[in-house]
Amino acid sequence: MNLDEYARYDGLGLAEIIRKGDIKPVEAAELFIAAVKKVNPQINSVIEVYDDAVDIAKFAAGIGGPFCGVPFLRKDLGATEGGRLQEWGSRLFKGYVPDNDSFLMTRFKKAGLATLGRSTVPELGISGQTETILQGITGNPWAPDRMAGGSSGGAAASVAAGIVPVAHASDGGGSIRIPASCCGLVGLNPSRGRISAGPDRQDPMFGLAREFVVSRSVRDTAAMLDAVHGAAVGDPFIIIKPDRPYLEELEAPLEKMKIAFTAEAWGPDPVDKEIRKAVEKAAAVCEAMGHDLSADSPALDYAKVNTAVMNAFGLADAGLADEAESLGRALNPDYLEPGTLKMIERAQNLTIAEAMNSFEIMRQTRYIVGQFFQKYDLLITPSLSILPQPHGEFSTKRDDLEPHEFWENDFRIFQHMGLFNVTGTPSVSLPLGQSESGLPVGVQIAAPFGDEAALIRIAAAFEEAMPWKDRIPPVHVSRF
Fold it and tell me: In which domain, by residue range, is 426 found?
């Protein structure tokens, strides 16, 4: 098998031929290594390939599972792999090795995935642009001079470029959906509590953050959700279970739904006309499927919601000083980028009243959006409000940006993202458009709390009606 053939398979497809013996797991691992060597110099999405990658692949294939022996990348923050580096894209954690596997990593292994390395991230996962002092700049396979998104930028760029068919990702304010949109992938952010982040990070970032994957196909997303969902010991609550396996939703009848849509801005700047066009086309396709469409969105002060998210991000890093001390380091410019350090210092100066007000805004937001979903089954929005930007636009490496400027720019671009982290409701970015310049355009679909099944069904319908699998970026393993 050559790299062109390897990259044509999604995760389930590759697992099937490994299981049948058409390709050995060792060969799959060697193809992964060759793929990294071919495209990583152009996009810098993989920070580490494990020395024992071939042995890992053999062991993973022996486990079996739906993703038997499929090469996989772990994002350099979030889910831990005992005995492997996890540096959070930061000099502060350079060389840090956790002791244990997280529950999610254990489930990835039981699914048969062969985790063969780490993907790049922005420092501490704060930015939507993956470029750091420690790991360098990650380019978008569709245009290497533009951002791949973040914080799962390395994961998304690796999948889009054909290095792996699916990769670990996480999302505290859009970090699965942003890079999925930038790189032309499926990026599902599950409901709060759907996937355990334990044993060390249950309900992280006050419930804003969740972990999952980015993929090229809806069926990989569904099968992965089947493999890793469910609460674990120490989780704060147990979410409602699905009625049937998510993979079965691909073939389930798509009943008529009431769907709201908006291409309007939720932030200070208008939505790019090409992105508006993609949202409107998606709405028209839904209407042609027989659904009831209405132009509507939750009545919220989105700027206040964004400020609450900003405060929660800062408060979540309040314990960094103690972690730094345990590593013999300090929160200073020797270990943190200028933008990161400024945002941490801002959070340290928040009053109790400001913090409590942020949590109250988030509570009110959950109620208002919950009411909205009493009326509608789904909500369609833009994923991003503008096309992927050149590198450096709002990097935490810049020392000329104050925290409010960084977050205002973040809100300008990702204005439709953070809401669904606050509410805990599931949402997915699908690659339903392409700009005149050839850049992917993502469209986001959100569902009521706990209803990932509806998102899988509508995503499968879009994948059939507006297929994307044959779109190949300029930087791709098949082109080298």
Answer: 3-475
Active-site residue, 151 included: yes
Residue at 160 is within a domain: yes
Residues 452 and 243: their CA atoms lie apart, in Å, by 11
Is 241 a residue of the active site? no
Pick the catalytic residue from 38, 75, 109, 342.
Answer: 75
Determine phi and psi for 230, rounding to 5 degrees.
120, 145
For the cut 90, the answer to whether the pLDDT of residue 319 exceeds it is no
What is the Cα Rg of the chain in Å?
Answer: 21
Burial class of residue 58 in the structure, from the number of CB atoms within 10 Å of its CB (0-12 exposed, 13-18 middle, 19+ buried):
middle
pLDDT at 404: 86
pLDDT digits 0-9 by tens, 204-226: 999 999 999 999 999 999 999 99
Q: How many domains does the chain have?
A: 1
Q: What are phi and psi of 5, to 5 degrees?
A: -65, -45
The CATH number of whichever domain residue 279 belongs to comes to 3.90.1300.10
Burial class (CB in 10 A: 0-12, 13-18, 19+), 2: exposed
Q: Is residue 480 part of a domain?
A: no
- Residue 331 CA to residue 318 CA, distance in Å, equals 11
What is the C-alpha separation between 226 and 189, in angstroms, rounded?
A: 14
Among candidate residues 102, 119, 127, 151, the one labeled active-site is 151
Identify whether the C-beta of residue 418 lies closer than 8 Å to the C-beta of residue 365. Answer: no
Query: Catalytic site residue 127?
Result: no
SS3 label, residue 115: strand
Give the β-pairing of 378-382 and 427-434.
Answer: unpaired
Span 148-186, pLDDT tens digits: 999 999 999 999 999 999 999 999 999 999 999 999 999
> Does residue 454 lie in a domain region?
yes
409 within domain boundaries: yes
The structure tokens listed for 432 are 């339903």
Neighbours of 400 (CB within 10 A): 7
Calculate the CA 206 to chain-centre distance: 18
Q: Is the pTM of this model over 0.85?
A: yes
Q: Which of 176, 213, 175, 212 has its CA nearest to residue 196?
A: 212
Amino acid 79: pLDDT: 98
Which of 15, 13, 7, 60 is CA-nearest to residue 35?
Answer: 7
Which one is catalytic: 175, 217, 427, 478?
175
217/228 Cα distance (integer angstroms): 17
User: Cα–Cα–Cα angle for 101, 106, 110, nearest 5°?
Assistant: 155
Instruction: Enter the DSSP assignment of 230.
Output: B
Q: Cis bond leading into 297, ω under 30°?
A: no
